[in-house]
Amino acid sequence: MINWGIIGCGNVTEVKSGPAFNKVNDSRLLAVMRRDRALAEDYAARHKVPRFYSDASLLINDPEINAVYIATPPGNHAEFAIKSIKAGKPVYIEKPMALNFAECQKIIRAGEKQRVPVFVAYYRRALPGFLKVKEIIEKGTIGKIRFAQIQLFKSPSEDELEGKLSWRVDPLISGGGHFFDLASHQLDYLDFLFGPVKTIKSLVLNQGGFYKAEDFVSAQFLFADNICCCGTWSFASAIEAGRDVIEIIGETGYIRFSCFNFEPIILETSNGRQEFVNKRPENVQIYLIDQVVKAIKGKGNAVSTGNTAARTSWVMDEVVKDYYKK
To answer: Is this structure's pTM higher than 0.85?
Structure first.
């Protein structure tokens, strides 16, 4: 049995991930940790978790816990991951893997030294709808891939308009702005489809002035086989312009789908137009968590590891590096 402990039981763990640890075979959620002891106790009571802590070290060193899920903001990922690894416990880390690529490398090296596996919560690699897109591409349904396009446009939140800023736009905690939080899923998924990015060109700005982190990114990526991607991310645009679109264009057709909204997948070729349901599971991380549990037990492999996730952190670092040199 894999007995999990969660460090940082915030919103992402309420539905997306936390309940899944009790739903997959050979797995259970044994303990949670939050700095605010009352909030940790409340979470444990609501989710029927046997133990709760306000000190991460106590959870990591609990002898019955044999795997740790790190769901804090990215600024703490490396610290808690390395401590868990040194305790001999496999880690499942929220995305992005760490504050930056250098910290990802430290986690990977620690895992290799201790022979402890590292996994990262890029769960779209395991979701049925996103696997359907991969299947369509690999079957050659749209022919040789020419390029991909990403568009993610969002308006500022009410809190941002009022100057109440979250950690997600504090580069010291998140690594960057909303680009790091959201685009990481999209870029990791393209890595899953096409392999590592080879070259990058980018334009990074702050247009809204609501915070210091970037709020506009335009970037071009080159993958193997001359597959190109053009991405545009805006987090200070009109609410009417909001969009969440990924298009993959081949020589004989294209696929269109959303990353976050789980809209139907559109496939169009000379044979006509088809739609495929992209259903959002109640607990969206459940398929990947199932893979992770099996991998820890030596019964399979997980598609999102420290090595794959670090590549996405490298891409994001490269995209914004000139912006943060200012």
So the answer is: yes
